[in-house]
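Lab notebook, page 48
Experiment: co-folding of the full assembly
Goal: obtain a model of how the components sit together before planning crosslinking
Operator: M.T.
Materials (sequences as entered):
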Amino acid sequence: MDYGKVRVRFAPSPTGPLHIGGLRTALFNYLFAKKNNGDFILRIEDTDQARYVPGAEEYIIESLKWCNIKIDEGITVGGLYEPYRQSERKDIYRKYAKQLVENCDAYYAFDTPDDLEQMRIRLKAEKSSTQQYNSITRGSMKNSLSLTNKEVKQRLESGEPYVIRFKMPENEEVTVNDLIRGKVIVNTSELDDKVLFKSDGMPTYHLANIVDDHLMKISHVIRGEEWLPSTPLHVLLYKAFGWESEMPEFAHMPLTLKPDGKGKLSKRDGDRLGFPVFPLQWINPVTKEVFSGFRETGYFPEAFINILAFLGWNPGTEQEIFSLNELIKSFSLERIGKSGSRFDPEKAKWYNHQYLIKKSDDELAELFQSILKEKGIDADLNYIKNICALTKERVNFVSEFCDQSYFFFEAPTEYDPKVIKKRWKENTPDVLKDIIDILNKSEPFNVENTEKNVKDYILKNELNMGQVLNVLRLTLVGSAKGPALFNIMELLGKNEVITRIEAGLVNIIK
RNA sequence: GGUCCGUUCGUCUAGCCAGGUCAGGACGCCAGGUUUUCAUCCUGGUAACACGGGUUCGAAUCCCGUACGGACUACCA
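Observation: model returned without errors.
Model output:
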Protein backbone atom coordinates (compact mmCIF):
# COMPACT_ATOMS: atom_id res chain seq x y z
CA MET A 1 0.00 0.00 0.00
CA ASP A 2 1.48 3.31 -0.92
CA TYR A 3 0.68 5.99 1.61
CA GLY A 4 1.09 8.83 -0.81
CA LYS A 5 -2.23 10.36 0.03
CA VAL A 6 -5.11 9.44 2.23
CA ARG A 7 -8.19 8.94 0.09
CA VAL A 8 -11.36 7.59 1.59
CA ARG A 9 -14.76 7.07 0.09
CA PHE A 10 -18.29 7.05 1.33
CA ALA A 11 -20.17 4.71 -0.94
CA PRO A 12 -23.84 4.41 -0.11
CA SER A 13 -26.39 2.75 -2.30
CA PRO A 14 -29.41 4.90 -3.12
CA THR A 15 -32.02 2.56 -1.73
CA GLY A 16 -33.68 5.07 0.54
CA PRO A 17 -32.82 7.76 3.05
CA LEU A 18 -29.54 7.53 4.89
CA HIS A 19 -30.01 6.86 8.56
CA ILE A 20 -27.84 8.04 11.43
CA GLY A 21 -25.65 4.95 11.22
CA GLY A 22 -24.90 5.59 7.58
CA LEU A 23 -24.22 9.22 8.18
CA ARG A 24 -21.88 8.34 11.02
CA THR A 25 -19.90 6.19 8.58
CA ALA A 26 -19.67 9.19 6.28
CA LEU A 27 -18.62 11.43 9.15
CA PHE A 28 -15.85 9.11 10.33
CA ASN A 29 -14.54 8.82 6.80
CA TYR A 30 -14.59 12.58 6.50
CA LEU A 31 -12.89 13.15 9.84
CA PHE A 32 -10.20 10.65 9.03
CA ALA A 33 -9.59 12.21 5.62
CA LYS A 34 -9.38 15.75 6.93
CA LYS A 35 -7.23 14.75 9.89
CA ASN A 36 -4.74 13.34 7.41
CA ASN A 37 -5.05 16.05 4.78
CA GLY A 38 -6.75 13.58 2.54
CA ASP A 39 -9.68 13.45 0.16
CA PHE A 40 -13.25 12.50 0.90
CA ILE A 41 -14.91 10.90 -2.07
CA LEU A 42 -18.60 10.27 -2.61
CA ARG A 43 -19.40 7.32 -4.83
CA ILE A 44 -22.88 6.04 -5.50
CA GLU A 45 -23.24 2.26 -5.53
CA ASP A 46 -26.37 1.83 -7.59
CA THR A 47 -25.70 -1.57 -9.09
CA ASP A 48 -29.03 -2.98 -7.96
CA GLN A 49 -31.60 -1.37 -10.19
CA ALA A 50 -34.39 -3.25 -8.45
CA ARG A 51 -33.78 -1.46 -5.20
CA TYR A 52 -33.17 1.96 -6.65
CA VAL A 53 -35.28 4.61 -4.93
CA PRO A 54 -35.80 7.95 -6.67
CA GLY A 55 -34.67 10.88 -4.58
CA ALA A 56 -32.35 8.83 -2.42
CA GLU A 57 -29.19 10.14 -4.07
CA GLU A 58 -30.30 13.73 -3.63
CA TYR A 59 -31.18 12.94 -0.05
CA ILE A 60 -27.68 11.64 0.62
CA ILE A 61 -26.09 14.72 -0.87
CA GLU A 62 -28.41 17.04 1.03
CA SER A 63 -27.70 15.22 4.29
CA LEU A 64 -23.95 15.55 3.89
CA LYS A 65 -24.37 19.20 3.04
CA TRP A 66 -26.50 19.83 6.12
CA CYS A 67 -23.81 18.20 8.28
CA ASN A 68 -21.19 20.38 6.67
CA ILE A 69 -19.35 17.33 5.32
CA LYS A 70 -17.72 18.59 2.17
CA ILE A 71 -17.22 16.33 -0.77
CA ASP A 72 -13.76 16.70 -2.30
CA GLU A 73 -14.44 14.45 -5.22
CA GLY A 74 -17.27 12.39 -6.63
CA ILE A 75 -20.91 12.90 -7.39
CA THR A 76 -21.82 16.61 -7.76
CA VAL A 77 -18.21 17.83 -7.81
CA GLY A 78 -16.55 15.48 -10.29
CA GLY A 79 -12.90 14.54 -10.25
CA LEU A 80 -10.12 12.64 -11.94
CA TYR A 81 -11.81 9.26 -11.80
CA GLU A 82 -15.24 9.95 -13.24
CA PRO A 83 -17.87 8.69 -13.40
CA TYR A 84 -18.63 8.20 -9.70
CA ARG A 85 -21.94 6.49 -10.19
CA GLN A 86 -21.41 2.76 -10.59
CA SER A 87 -24.30 2.29 -12.99
CA GLU A 88 -22.30 4.46 -15.39
CA ARG A 89 -19.22 2.26 -15.11
CA LYS A 90 -20.71 -1.05 -16.31
CA ASP A 91 -18.18 -1.61 -19.06
CA ILE A 92 -15.26 -1.24 -16.68
CA TYR A 93 -16.56 -4.02 -14.46
CA ARG A 94 -17.30 -6.30 -17.37
CA LYS A 95 -13.74 -5.95 -18.56
CA TYR A 96 -12.29 -6.81 -15.16
CA ALA A 97 -14.68 -9.72 -14.64
CA LYS A 98 -13.58 -11.17 -17.98
CA GLN A 99 -9.97 -10.73 -16.99
CA LEU A 100 -10.61 -12.81 -13.91
CA VAL A 101 -12.19 -15.56 -16.05
CA GLU A 102 -9.22 -15.54 -18.40
CA ASN A 103 -6.87 -15.95 -15.45
CA CYS A 104 -8.97 -18.82 -14.10
CA ASP A 105 -9.87 -16.93 -10.94
CA ALA A 106 -13.49 -16.79 -11.98
CA TYR A 107 -15.86 -18.70 -14.25
CA TYR A 108 -19.14 -18.47 -16.11
CA ALA A 109 -22.15 -20.06 -14.48
CA PHE A 110 -25.43 -20.76 -16.24
CA ASP A 111 -27.49 -22.07 -13.37
CA THR A 112 -31.04 -20.78 -13.20
CA PRO A 113 -32.55 -19.61 -9.91
CA ASP A 114 -34.37 -22.91 -9.88
CA ASP A 115 -31.10 -24.86 -10.30
CA LEU A 116 -29.68 -23.04 -7.29
CA GLU A 117 -32.76 -23.74 -5.27
CA GLN A 118 -32.55 -27.43 -6.16
CA MET A 119 -28.90 -27.49 -5.11
CA ARG A 120 -29.74 -26.02 -1.72
CA ILE A 121 -32.56 -28.47 -1.16
CA ARG A 122 -30.32 -31.37 -2.13
CA LEU A 123 -27.51 -30.23 0.17
CA LYS A 124 -29.89 -29.74 3.03
CA ALA A 125 -31.29 -33.22 2.55
CA GLU A 126 -27.76 -34.59 2.61
CA LYS A 127 -27.29 -32.78 5.92
CA SER A 128 -24.37 -30.89 4.50
CA SER A 129 -23.08 -28.25 6.92
CA THR A 130 -23.51 -25.52 4.32
CA GLN A 131 -25.57 -25.06 1.20
CA GLN A 132 -22.98 -23.14 -0.72
CA TYR A 133 -21.87 -22.89 -4.29
CA ASN A 134 -18.23 -23.76 -3.68
CA SER A 135 -15.32 -26.00 -4.60
CA ILE A 136 -17.30 -29.07 -3.56
CA THR A 137 -20.54 -28.29 -5.34
CA ARG A 138 -19.43 -26.35 -8.39
CA GLY A 139 -18.52 -29.55 -10.24
CA SER A 140 -22.12 -30.65 -10.33
CA MET A 141 -23.50 -27.32 -11.49
CA LYS A 142 -23.71 -25.77 -14.97
CA ASN A 143 -20.60 -23.66 -15.33
CA SER A 144 -17.50 -23.22 -17.39
CA LEU A 145 -15.56 -25.48 -15.05
CA SER A 146 -17.94 -28.42 -15.34
CA LEU A 147 -19.04 -28.06 -18.96
CA THR A 148 -16.91 -28.60 -22.03
CA ASN A 149 -15.35 -25.59 -23.74
CA LYS A 150 -17.54 -26.18 -26.73
CA GLU A 151 -20.72 -26.18 -24.72
CA VAL A 152 -19.71 -23.05 -22.83
CA LYS A 153 -19.01 -21.29 -26.08
CA GLN A 154 -22.36 -22.38 -27.47
CA ARG A 155 -24.28 -21.15 -24.44
CA LEU A 156 -22.46 -17.83 -24.46
CA GLU A 157 -23.01 -17.32 -28.19
CA SER A 158 -26.68 -18.23 -27.99
CA GLY A 159 -27.14 -15.41 -25.51
CA GLU A 160 -28.00 -17.62 -22.58
CA PRO A 161 -27.98 -15.66 -19.33
CA TYR A 162 -24.91 -16.17 -17.24
CA VAL A 163 -23.18 -14.85 -14.17
CA ILE A 164 -19.50 -14.77 -13.36
CA ARG A 165 -18.53 -16.38 -10.10
CA PHE A 166 -15.32 -16.12 -8.16
CA LYS A 167 -13.42 -19.39 -8.01
CA MET A 168 -12.81 -19.56 -4.28
CA PRO A 169 -9.54 -21.38 -3.54
CA GLU A 170 -9.69 -24.49 -1.40
CA ASN A 171 -8.45 -24.57 2.17
CA GLU A 172 -6.41 -21.40 2.24
CA GLU A 173 -6.06 -19.04 5.18
CA VAL A 174 -6.86 -15.43 4.45
CA THR A 175 -5.77 -12.75 6.88
CA VAL A 176 -7.56 -9.44 7.07
CA ASN A 177 -5.69 -6.79 8.96
CA ASP A 178 -8.36 -4.58 10.41
CA LEU A 179 -7.35 -1.24 11.90
CA ILE A 180 -10.04 -1.49 14.56
CA ARG A 181 -10.24 -5.22 15.20
CA GLY A 182 -6.76 -6.46 14.53
CA LYS A 183 -6.06 -9.64 12.58
CA VAL A 184 -9.07 -11.63 11.43
CA ILE A 185 -8.26 -15.00 9.90
CA VAL A 186 -10.71 -16.99 7.81
CA ASN A 187 -10.30 -20.23 5.93
CA THR A 188 -11.48 -20.12 2.32
CA SER A 189 -13.29 -23.42 2.74
CA GLU A 190 -15.88 -21.47 4.71
CA LEU A 191 -16.42 -19.09 1.81
CA ASP A 192 -18.46 -19.62 -1.35
CA ASP A 193 -18.09 -18.81 -5.00
CA LYS A 194 -19.66 -15.38 -4.87
CA VAL A 195 -21.32 -13.93 -7.91
CA LEU A 196 -19.20 -11.05 -9.15
CA PHE A 197 -21.07 -10.18 -12.29
CA LYS A 198 -24.81 -10.51 -12.60
CA SER A 199 -26.84 -11.72 -15.55
CA ASP A 200 -28.26 -8.22 -16.00
CA GLY A 201 -24.81 -6.94 -16.92
CA MET A 202 -24.20 -5.27 -13.58
CA PRO A 203 -21.46 -6.16 -11.14
CA THR A 204 -22.23 -7.13 -7.58
CA TYR A 205 -21.00 -4.99 -4.74
CA HIS A 206 -17.91 -7.13 -4.27
CA LEU A 207 -16.52 -6.66 -7.76
CA ALA A 208 -17.53 -3.05 -8.26
CA ASN A 209 -16.20 -2.10 -4.88
CA ILE A 210 -12.76 -3.59 -5.37
CA VAL A 211 -12.36 -2.33 -8.92
CA ASP A 212 -13.45 1.20 -8.02
CA ASP A 213 -11.45 1.42 -4.82
CA HIS A 214 -8.39 0.39 -6.76
CA LEU A 215 -9.00 2.63 -9.76
CA MET A 216 -9.85 5.57 -7.51
CA LYS A 217 -6.74 4.99 -5.44
CA ILE A 218 -8.59 4.59 -2.16
CA SER A 219 -6.16 4.26 0.72
CA HIS A 220 -8.51 3.38 3.57
CA VAL A 221 -11.82 1.58 3.50
CA ILE A 222 -13.82 2.66 6.54
CA ARG A 223 -17.20 0.98 6.60
CA GLY A 224 -19.70 -0.79 8.84
CA GLU A 225 -18.95 -4.04 10.58
CA GLU A 226 -21.51 -5.85 8.44
CA TRP A 227 -18.81 -5.95 5.76
CA LEU A 228 -16.25 -7.76 7.83
CA PRO A 229 -17.39 -11.27 6.82
CA SER A 230 -16.97 -10.50 3.12
CA THR A 231 -13.62 -8.78 3.49
CA PRO A 232 -11.63 -12.01 2.99
CA LEU A 233 -13.27 -12.27 -0.43
CA HIS A 234 -12.22 -8.71 -1.13
CA VAL A 235 -8.66 -9.47 -0.12
CA LEU A 236 -8.67 -12.47 -2.45
CA LEU A 237 -9.95 -10.29 -5.26
CA TYR A 238 -7.12 -7.82 -4.78
CA LYS A 239 -4.71 -10.77 -4.98
CA ALA A 240 -6.39 -12.17 -8.08
CA PHE A 241 -6.07 -8.83 -9.84
CA GLY A 242 -2.47 -8.55 -8.76
CA TRP A 243 -3.21 -5.41 -6.74
CA GLU A 244 -2.23 -6.81 -3.40
CA SER A 245 0.56 -4.33 -2.81
CA GLU A 246 -1.85 -1.45 -3.35
CA MET A 247 -4.64 -2.86 -1.28
CA PRO A 248 -6.27 -0.28 1.01
CA GLU A 249 -6.30 -0.57 4.77
CA PHE A 250 -9.57 -1.75 6.27
CA ALA A 251 -11.36 -0.41 9.30
CA HIS A 252 -14.71 -1.90 10.24
CA MET A 253 -16.77 0.33 12.48
CA PRO A 254 -19.08 -1.02 15.17
CA LEU A 255 -22.74 -0.99 14.26
CA THR A 256 -25.36 1.46 15.43
CA LEU A 257 -27.97 -0.54 17.31
CA LYS A 258 -31.68 -0.16 17.75
CA PRO A 259 -32.34 2.07 20.79
CA ASP A 260 -34.58 -0.59 22.25
CA GLY A 261 -34.51 -4.34 21.69
CA LYS A 262 -32.12 -6.09 19.41
CA GLY A 263 -30.24 -5.77 16.17
CA LYS A 264 -28.76 -3.02 14.11
CA LEU A 265 -30.65 0.15 13.50
CA SER A 266 -32.70 -0.02 10.35
CA LYS A 267 -34.60 2.40 8.19
CA ARG A 268 -37.79 0.70 9.33
CA ASP A 269 -37.15 2.03 12.81
CA GLY A 270 -38.32 5.39 11.47
CA ASP A 271 -40.22 7.26 14.12
CA ARG A 272 -41.20 4.13 16.01
CA LEU A 273 -39.43 5.26 19.20
CA GLY A 274 -40.61 8.84 19.20
CA PHE A 275 -37.50 10.35 17.69
CA PRO A 276 -36.06 10.42 14.20
CA VAL A 277 -33.46 8.03 12.82
CA PHE A 278 -32.94 10.10 9.68
CA PRO A 279 -30.96 13.31 9.40
CA LEU A 280 -33.54 14.96 7.17
CA GLN A 281 -37.22 14.45 6.75
CA TRP A 282 -38.02 11.77 4.18
CA ILE A 283 -41.21 11.19 2.34
CA ASN A 284 -41.53 7.75 0.84
CA PRO A 285 -42.06 8.42 -2.88
CA VAL A 286 -44.46 5.50 -3.23
CA THR A 287 -46.49 5.42 -0.02
CA LYS A 288 -46.07 9.13 0.76
CA GLU A 289 -45.36 8.11 4.32
CA VAL A 290 -43.48 10.85 6.18
CA PHE A 291 -40.45 10.12 8.34
CA SER A 292 -39.16 12.91 10.52
CA GLY A 293 -35.61 14.16 10.42
CA PHE A 294 -33.23 15.61 12.98
CA ARG A 295 -33.10 18.83 11.01
CA GLU A 296 -36.87 19.30 11.06
CA THR A 297 -37.05 18.27 14.71
CA GLY A 298 -34.86 21.24 15.50
CA TYR A 299 -31.41 19.79 15.94
CA PHE A 300 -28.52 22.00 14.98
CA PRO A 301 -26.18 20.27 12.53
CA GLU A 302 -23.22 21.00 14.82
CA ALA A 303 -24.97 19.22 17.67
CA PHE A 304 -26.00 16.40 15.42
CA ILE A 305 -22.50 15.59 14.20
CA ASN A 306 -21.19 15.93 17.74
CA ILE A 307 -23.69 13.30 18.84
CA LEU A 308 -22.83 11.07 15.88
CA ALA A 309 -19.11 11.33 16.53
CA PHE A 310 -19.55 10.16 20.10
CA LEU A 311 -21.39 7.05 18.97
CA GLY A 312 -18.50 4.65 19.03
CA TRP A 313 -15.71 7.18 19.26
CA ASN A 314 -14.37 9.33 22.08
CA PRO A 315 -11.34 11.54 22.48
CA GLY A 316 -10.12 9.93 25.71
CA THR A 317 -10.54 13.21 27.55
CA GLU A 318 -13.53 14.58 29.40
CA GLN A 319 -14.39 17.09 26.73
CA GLU A 320 -17.74 16.30 25.16
CA ILE A 321 -18.55 19.34 23.09
CA PHE A 322 -16.62 19.34 19.86
CA SER A 323 -16.96 21.47 16.78
CA LEU A 324 -16.35 19.82 13.44
CA ASN A 325 -12.86 21.30 13.35
CA GLU A 326 -12.10 20.07 16.84
CA LEU A 327 -13.35 16.63 15.86
CA ILE A 328 -11.02 16.64 12.89
CA LYS A 329 -8.12 17.64 15.10
CA SER A 330 -8.80 14.97 17.70
CA PHE A 331 -9.96 12.13 15.51
CA SER A 332 -8.16 8.84 15.26
CA LEU A 333 -9.21 5.37 14.17
CA GLU A 334 -7.54 3.88 17.24
CA ARG A 335 -10.08 5.50 19.51
CA ILE A 336 -13.06 3.89 17.83
CA GLY A 337 -14.58 1.26 20.12
CA LYS A 338 -15.28 -2.31 19.12
CA SER A 339 -18.81 -2.80 20.33
CA GLY A 340 -22.03 -1.46 18.91
CA SER A 341 -23.75 1.52 20.42
CA ARG A 342 -27.26 2.75 20.90
CA PHE A 343 -28.47 6.23 20.21
CA ASP A 344 -29.67 7.93 23.40
CA PRO A 345 -32.40 10.48 22.63
CA GLU A 346 -32.12 12.11 26.06
CA LYS A 347 -28.44 12.81 25.70
CA ALA A 348 -29.06 14.06 22.19
CA LYS A 349 -31.41 16.71 23.58
CA TRP A 350 -28.79 17.71 26.10
CA TYR A 351 -26.26 18.16 23.32
CA ASN A 352 -28.64 20.37 21.40
CA HIS A 353 -29.26 22.44 24.51
CA GLN A 354 -25.53 22.97 24.91
CA TYR A 355 -25.27 24.28 21.37
CA LEU A 356 -28.41 26.37 21.72
CA ILE A 357 -27.23 28.27 24.79
CA LYS A 358 -23.93 28.98 23.05
CA LYS A 359 -25.70 30.66 20.14
CA SER A 360 -26.05 34.41 20.09
CA ASP A 361 -29.40 35.95 20.91
CA ASP A 362 -29.45 37.51 17.46
CA GLU A 363 -29.13 34.18 15.74
CA LEU A 364 -31.74 32.56 17.95
CA ALA A 365 -34.10 35.47 17.41
CA GLU A 366 -33.96 35.06 13.65
CA LEU A 367 -34.65 31.36 13.90
CA PHE A 368 -37.48 31.91 16.32
CA GLN A 369 -38.93 34.72 14.24
CA SER A 370 -39.38 32.44 11.25
CA ILE A 371 -41.26 29.94 13.42
CA LEU A 372 -43.47 32.75 14.71
CA LYS A 373 -44.16 33.93 11.20
CA GLU A 374 -45.35 30.45 10.27
CA LYS A 375 -47.79 30.70 13.13
CA GLY A 376 -48.97 34.06 11.91
CA ILE A 377 -47.32 36.02 14.67
CA ASP A 378 -45.53 39.11 13.49
CA ALA A 379 -43.24 40.52 16.12
CA ASP A 380 -40.35 42.91 16.31
CA LEU A 381 -36.98 41.20 15.99
CA ASN A 382 -35.54 43.09 18.92
CA TYR A 383 -38.47 42.06 21.10
CA ILE A 384 -37.93 38.42 20.07
CA LYS A 385 -34.25 38.76 20.78
CA ASN A 386 -34.98 39.85 24.34
CA ILE A 387 -37.34 36.92 24.77
CA CYS A 388 -34.68 34.51 23.53
CA ALA A 389 -32.14 35.94 25.92
CA LEU A 390 -34.56 35.48 28.77
CA THR A 391 -35.63 31.93 27.94
CA LYS A 392 -32.75 30.23 26.14
CA GLU A 393 -31.57 28.39 29.26
CA ARG A 394 -34.95 26.73 29.47
CA VAL A 395 -35.19 25.16 26.01
CA ASN A 396 -33.51 22.39 24.06
CA PHE A 397 -34.85 23.41 20.67
CA VAL A 398 -35.73 26.69 19.02
CA SER A 399 -39.27 25.39 18.55
CA GLU A 400 -39.62 25.16 22.33
CA PHE A 401 -39.36 28.93 22.60
CA CYS A 402 -43.04 28.91 21.69
CA ASP A 403 -44.06 27.03 24.81
CA GLN A 404 -41.79 29.15 26.95
CA SER A 405 -42.90 32.50 25.66
CA TYR A 406 -46.47 32.35 24.30
CA PHE A 407 -47.52 34.91 26.93
CA PHE A 408 -45.25 37.50 25.40
CA PHE A 409 -47.47 37.51 22.34
CA GLU A 410 -50.93 37.23 23.83
CA ALA A 411 -52.51 37.91 27.19
CA PRO A 412 -53.60 34.87 29.14
CA THR A 413 -57.20 33.82 28.66
CA GLU A 414 -57.09 31.05 31.23
CA TYR A 415 -55.63 31.02 34.69
CA ASP A 416 -54.23 27.92 36.39
CA PRO A 417 -56.91 26.95 38.93
CA LYS A 418 -54.35 25.34 41.22
CA VAL A 419 -52.50 28.60 41.57
CA ILE A 420 -55.73 30.49 42.15
CA LYS A 421 -56.67 28.09 44.90
CA LYS A 422 -53.31 28.31 46.57
CA ARG A 423 -52.49 32.00 46.17
CA TRP A 424 -55.63 34.05 45.60
CA LYS A 425 -56.63 35.44 49.00
CA GLU A 426 -59.33 37.84 50.16
CA ASN A 427 -56.99 40.84 50.12
CA THR A 428 -55.51 39.96 46.72
CA PRO A 429 -57.68 42.37 44.68
CA ASP A 430 -56.71 45.28 46.95
CA VAL A 431 -53.06 44.35 46.81
CA LEU A 432 -53.12 44.16 43.03
CA LYS A 433 -54.83 47.54 42.82
CA ASP A 434 -52.05 49.00 44.96
CA ILE A 435 -49.49 47.38 42.71
CA ILE A 436 -51.13 48.91 39.64
CA ASP A 437 -50.62 52.31 41.24
CA ILE A 438 -47.04 51.53 42.11
CA LEU A 439 -46.26 50.33 38.61
CA ASN A 440 -47.96 53.33 37.13
CA LYS A 441 -45.56 55.53 39.02
CA SER A 442 -42.49 53.46 38.14
CA GLU A 443 -40.43 55.41 35.66
CA PRO A 444 -38.55 54.24 33.78
CA PHE A 445 -40.46 51.00 33.69
CA ASN A 446 -37.55 48.60 33.98
CA VAL A 447 -36.50 45.60 36.05
CA GLU A 448 -34.65 47.62 38.69
CA ASN A 449 -37.41 50.13 39.38
CA THR A 450 -40.37 47.78 39.28
CA GLU A 451 -38.63 45.20 41.41
CA LYS A 452 -37.55 47.71 44.01
CA ASN A 453 -40.92 49.44 44.18
CA VAL A 454 -43.01 46.28 44.37
CA LYS A 455 -40.74 44.64 46.93
CA ASP A 456 -40.66 47.78 49.06
CA TYR A 457 -44.44 47.79 49.04
CA ILE A 458 -44.58 44.13 50.11
CA LEU A 459 -42.11 44.70 52.94
CA LYS A 460 -43.76 47.86 54.14
CA ASN A 461 -47.16 46.21 54.35
CA GLU A 462 -45.70 42.99 55.83
CA LEU A 463 -47.12 40.93 53.00
CA ASN A 464 -45.92 37.51 51.90
CA MET A 465 -43.48 37.77 48.98
CA GLY A 466 -44.46 34.45 47.41
CA GLN A 467 -48.12 35.18 47.82
CA VAL A 468 -48.07 38.52 46.07
CA LEU A 469 -45.57 37.81 43.35
CA ASN A 470 -47.19 34.54 42.32
CA VAL A 471 -50.57 36.06 42.02
CA LEU A 472 -49.11 38.94 40.06
CA ARG A 473 -47.44 36.41 37.78
CA LEU A 474 -50.76 34.65 37.41
CA THR A 475 -52.40 37.75 35.97
CA LEU A 476 -49.54 38.30 33.53
CA VAL A 477 -48.77 34.75 32.44
CA GLY A 478 -51.75 32.63 33.45
CA SER A 479 -49.67 30.17 35.44
CA ALA A 480 -46.95 29.96 38.04
CA LYS A 481 -44.21 29.17 35.58
CA GLY A 482 -41.76 31.14 33.53
CA PRO A 483 -38.77 33.44 33.68
CA ALA A 484 -38.10 36.11 36.28
CA LEU A 485 -41.24 38.16 36.85
CA PHE A 486 -39.77 41.64 36.63
CA ASN A 487 -37.99 40.74 33.41
CA ILE A 488 -41.30 39.69 31.96
CA MET A 489 -42.83 43.00 33.04
CA GLU A 490 -40.11 45.08 31.49
CA LEU A 491 -40.46 43.27 28.18
CA LEU A 492 -44.25 43.49 28.20
CA GLY A 493 -44.18 47.20 28.97
CA LYS A 494 -46.17 49.24 31.42
CA ASN A 495 -49.43 49.49 29.50
CA GLU A 496 -49.68 45.79 28.74
CA VAL A 497 -48.78 44.85 32.31
CA ILE A 498 -51.44 47.05 33.83
CA THR A 499 -54.02 45.95 31.29
CA ARG A 500 -53.33 42.32 32.17
CA ILE A 501 -53.56 42.90 35.90
CA GLU A 502 -56.86 44.68 35.44
CA ALA A 503 -58.12 41.85 33.25
CA GLY A 504 -57.02 39.40 35.91
CA LEU A 505 -58.98 41.29 38.54
CA VAL A 506 -62.09 40.92 36.42
CA ASN A 507 -61.58 37.37 35.16
CA ILE A 508 -60.14 35.55 38.13
CA ILE A 509 -62.92 34.56 40.43
CA LYS A 510 -62.15 32.40 43.35
C1' G B 1 -26.88 -24.65 11.67
C1' G B 2 -21.91 -22.61 10.09
C1' U B 3 -18.18 -18.58 10.11
C1' C B 4 -16.64 -14.15 12.14
C1' C B 5 -17.08 -10.03 15.67
C1' G B 6 -18.29 -8.31 20.40
C1' U B 7 -19.57 -8.01 26.15
C1' U B 8 -17.44 -1.99 32.10
C1' C B 9 -23.32 1.82 35.68
C1' G B 10 -30.30 2.10 32.49
C1' U B 11 -27.50 4.75 28.07
C1' C B 12 -22.70 6.84 25.79
C1' U B 13 -18.11 5.65 27.61
C1' A B 14 -12.60 6.23 30.39
C1' G B 15 -9.38 2.61 32.17
C1' C B 16 -7.28 -2.88 28.85
C1' C B 17 -2.37 -2.98 24.20
C1' A B 18 2.71 -1.67 28.32
C1' G B 19 -1.64 -6.10 35.44
C1' G B 20 -1.51 -2.64 41.51
C1' U B 21 -7.32 3.33 40.54
C1' C B 22 -12.08 3.86 46.59
C1' A B 23 -13.23 1.36 38.54
C1' G B 24 -13.42 7.96 36.47
C1' G B 25 -16.70 11.23 33.43
C1' A B 26 -21.31 12.53 30.84
C1' C B 27 -26.75 11.78 30.03
C1' G B 28 -30.85 9.98 32.87
C1' C B 29 -32.85 9.29 37.66
C1' C B 30 -33.10 10.66 43.12
C1' A B 31 -32.11 14.18 47.19
C1' G B 32 -30.56 18.95 48.97
C1' G B 33 -29.37 24.17 47.89
C1' U B 34 -30.30 28.86 45.03
C1' U B 35 -34.94 31.26 42.97
C1' U B 36 -41.42 34.87 43.85
C1' U B 37 -42.79 30.09 40.45
C1' C B 38 -41.23 26.53 36.81
C1' A B 39 -36.82 25.61 34.29
C1' U B 40 -31.68 26.57 34.45
C1' C B 41 -27.63 26.42 37.76
C1' C B 42 -24.73 24.39 42.09
C1' U B 43 -23.80 20.26 45.63
C1' G B 44 -24.44 15.31 46.81
C1' G B 45 -26.33 10.43 45.79
C1' U B 46 -27.80 6.06 42.75
C1' A B 47 -25.64 2.46 39.58
C1' A B 48 -21.20 -1.50 36.08
C1' C B 49 -16.04 -4.86 35.09
C1' A B 50 -21.39 -11.30 31.69
C1' C B 51 -19.93 -16.10 34.14
C1' G B 52 -16.26 -19.94 35.36
C1' G B 53 -11.35 -21.45 35.44
C1' G B 54 -6.22 -20.46 35.01
C1' U B 55 -1.31 -17.30 35.10
C1' U B 56 0.34 -13.87 39.04
C1' C B 57 2.10 -11.55 45.44
C1' G B 58 -1.85 -8.96 42.78
C1' A B 59 -6.53 -9.46 37.02
C1' A B 60 -11.68 -5.03 34.45
C1' U B 61 -6.71 -5.45 32.26
C1' C B 62 -3.06 -11.52 30.08
C1' C B 63 -4.73 -16.92 28.64
C1' C B 64 -8.65 -20.78 28.14
C1' G B 65 -13.66 -22.18 28.33
C1' U B 66 -18.96 -21.08 28.82
C1' A B 67 -23.06 -17.95 28.32
C1' C B 68 -25.30 -14.05 26.01
C1' G B 69 -25.62 -10.43 22.08
C1' G B 70 -24.61 -9.07 17.03
C1' A B 71 -23.17 -9.35 11.85
C1' C B 72 -22.78 -12.36 7.71
C1' U B 73 -24.32 -16.76 5.28
C1' A B 74 -28.81 -13.33 -2.19
C1' C B 75 -27.60 -12.78 -9.50
C1' C B 76 -28.96 -6.71 -1.94
C1' A B 77 -25.61 -3.41 -0.63
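Interpretation: The longest helix of chain A spans residues 20-35.
Next step: discuss with group before ordering constructs.
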